[in-house]
Amino acid sequence: MTRAERKKAELRREIIDASFECFAKHGYHATGIADIATTLGIGHGTFYRYFENKRDIIDHVIDDLIAKIISALAVENAPDAANTLDEYRAQVGRIAEALPRIFFDDPRIPRVLLFETTGVDADLTGRMLDLLDQSASLTAAYLHHGVECGYLRADLDVDNTAQAVNGMMLASAIHGLRADSSVDCAALNQAISRLMFDGIRAENA
Amino acid sequence: MTRAERKKAELRREIIDASFECFAKHGYHATGIADIATTLGIGHGTFYRYFENKRDIIDHVIDDLIAKIISALAVENAPDAANTLDEYRAQVGRIAEALPRIFFDDPRIPRVLLFETTGVDADLTGRMLDLLDQSASLTAAYLHHGVECGYLRADLDVDNTAQAVNGMMLASAIHGLRADSSVDCAALNQAISRLMFDGIRAENA
Amino acid sequence: MTRAERKKAELRREIIDASFECFAKHGYHATGIADIATTLGIGHGTFYRYFENKRDIIDHVIDDLIAKIISALAVENAPDAANTLDEYRAQVGRIAEALPRIFFDDPRIPRVLLFETTGVDADLTGRMLDLLDQSASLTAAYLHHGVECGYLRADLDVDNTAQAVNGMMLASAIHGLRADSSVDCAALNQAISRLMFDGIRAENA
Amino acid sequence: MTRAERKKAELRREIIDASFECFAKHGYHATGIADIATTLGIGHGTFYRYFENKRDIIDHVIDDLIAKIISALAVENAPDAANTLDEYRAQVGRIAEALPRIFFDDPRIPRVLLFETTGVDADLTGRMLDLLDQSASLTAAYLHHGVECGYLRADLDVDNTAQAVNGMMLASAIHGLRADSSVDCAALNQAISRLMFDGIRAENA
DNA sequence: CATGAATGAGCCTTCATTCAT
DNA sequence: TATGAATGAAGGCTCATTCAT
Known about the structure:
mainly alpha, homotetramer, Arc Repressor Mutant, subunit A
C-alpha cells in the first residue's frame, strides 16, 4: 500500500468517525455534510470523494459499529465452550459484562445503533433488525448447545427463547442510555441472569 | 357540543390518523405536510388550522397511540388481581395476548412508536423512553404483588427483573414487525412465559 | 337613513379606526386582516363585507387622516385673511400651532401618514406626495397674498419657497415622532418662524 | 487579496446593487429573493451565501447609500471653511448642488432611502431617522460656526434652525422624486438659499 | 348579514450535491 | 486531489380571500 493510499484510507476512517460523532450528537437528519466536514476541518466537497452521498455514510458508520461489537464479543468463548451449567452461567456472565462495557463506555454506540438507524430508510431499519436477528441466532446457538449437553431444559424452544433473551439484552442497552444511568447496570445483568436460569417462581409455588 | 364543533373535532381526528398513516408508510422525515393533506383531500393550509406545525402533529400521533395501548391494557386485570401462581400465569398469558393483538393487528403502531419517535428530537425520544419506563413500572407492580403473595421468589430484584421482562415484550413487539412475520407470535409468547416462570435450566442441573 | 344603514356606517367607521390603530402599531405589512377583526371583536370575514381587500382599507384610513388634518387647518384663517406682516406672522403662528397639535397629540397620525403610505404601492406613495403638493399649494397661496399685499418680498419665488416652507413643516412633523419627543416643539416652531421672516443672516452682515 | 476573494467581494457588491435596483423598482415587500437572484442571473441559493436573509440585505443597501451620500458631501468644504457670509453663501450653494446631484441623477436613491426604510421594521425606520438627525447635526455645526464668526444672527437657535434647514433639504429631495421632475431643481435651491439668508419679509415691512 | 373554516398561491430558507479551479 | 462557490429542488409556513352555513 502506497503512502497515498494509506493517507486516503486514514481520512476515510476519520470521516466515518466524525460522522458517527455528529450523528450521535445531533442525529442523522440534523447533521449536514458541512457539519461532518467542519468537525474534521476539511472542505465539504472532499466528503464526496470518499463517500457516495449522505445516505452512504451512515451505512459505513453502522458497519463500523457492528464490527466493533462483534469483535468485542468474539473474544468471548464460542457457543460450544461451556459443557456444564456452571460453565455456561459463567459464560453468560462474561458476555453480560462485555456488551455493556461497549455500550456503557460509549453510549453513543447504542444511541446511533438503535435510534439513528430507524427513521432514515426501510433498508437501514432492516439492517438493524437483521443485526438483532443475528444476535438472536448467536444466542440460539448457545442455547442449542446447552440443550444438547443436557444442562438446559430439553423442551426449550431454542429460537424463541433466544429472541426473548435478546430482548433482555436490548433492555439492558436502552437502560444504559438514560441520562440518569449513573446506576451501574450490574444489578440489571444479575437480574437477567437469575431470571434466565431460575425464572421468577418461588421454589415452593 | 355544536355540530360545527363536532365536525372540527372529527377533522382533527382525521388529520391525526392520516399523519399516522403517512408516518408509518414513509417515516416522519419523508412525510410532508402536503402528503398528509393530500391523503385527506384537504388543502395543506387547513393542516395549520388544527396543529401548530409539523413537529406538533407527531406528538399528538404518539399521544394517540399511547392512549390506544393503555386502553387495551386497561381491560386486563389490575396488578393485584392474581393471588396464586396459576392465576398470575393466566394473567400474564392474557397480557401477552393483548399487546400483540394491538401490535400484530396493526404493525404500523409499533413501527411508529418505536421507529419514528427516534431521530426527530431529544424530547420525542425521551417520551418513548418514558413510555418504556412506565411499562416497566407497571410490570414491577405485578411482580411486587407476586412476591408479597409468596408465589414469586422472595429474593426477586423486582425493578430490574421488570426491566428484563419489559425487554422481552419489546422483543415480541419488534418480532411482530418483520415483514415475514406471518409466523404467529404465540410461540414467542409461550417461550417468554416459560422463561419467566421456569427459567431455562434443566430440572436436574 | 334607516337604523340598519346607521349601524352599517358605524361599523365601517370602526373598521377604519381599528385598521388605523393596527397600522400605526405594527405597520401595514405586519398587520393582518385577522388582527384588525380581532381588535374589533368581529369575524374577519366581516371585513370583506365593508372593504374590497387589504389594499382598499389603507386608502380609507389615509382619506380619514387627510380629512382630519384639513378640518383642523380649516378653522384657521383663509390665505387672504392677513393684510399686514404682523397679521401674517400671527396667522403663521396659529397654523404652526395647529398642525403639531394634531401630530403631537396623536403621533400615530404622522407615523401612518408618512411611514405607512410608502412601501405599499406606487399609487399610495403618489397620494402622499400629492398631499404634500396640496399643502405646498396652500402655502403658496398664503405667500402669494403676502407678496400682493406688499408685506413679503416682491421678488419672492412663491412656489419654490412654498415647497421649502413645506419641508420645514415636514421636519416639524418628523421631529414630533421621535421617541424622545418630550421636548416641546414650540422651540422648533419659533425657529422656523424666525427663519422664515428674518432669515439667518446677521443684521450687519 | 486573492483572486477568489476579489470575485467574492465583487458578487457581494453586485447583489447589493441588484437588491437596490429591485427595491427601488418594486419596493422591499414586493421584491423576492428570487427577483434579486434573477436580476443577476444567479441561483437564489447563492444569495444566502452572501447575506443572512432578506432583512439583512436592506441594511447593507442602506449602508451603501449612506456611504455614497457622505462621500459626496465629504468633498465639500468642512463646516469651519467659511469665514464670511459670502463664503458661507457659496458653501451652501455648493452643498445645495451636491445633494441634488446625487438625488437627482439617480432618483432611486432618495426613493429607497426615504420610502423603503419605513414600513419594514422599527429598527430600519430608526436608522433613517438617525440619518436625518446626523444631517441636522452637521447643519448645526455649519450654523454654529457662522454665529461664532458673526455673519449669522447671534440669537440664532442653532439646533432647531438646523432641523428646519434639514426639512428644506428633505423637501428638495422629495421634490426631485416626482415623476414630472423634469423641472430642474436649481430654482428650488435658489429659493431655499434666499429664504435662509434673507427670509421672506419685504425690506420695508 | 356575520361568520370562520377552508384554501392555495407564494414566500423564505435549507442543504445535498456538482464541478470549475 | 482538495476545495468551496454555486445551485435549485424541496418543504415548511403565512395569510389574503372566498363561500357555505
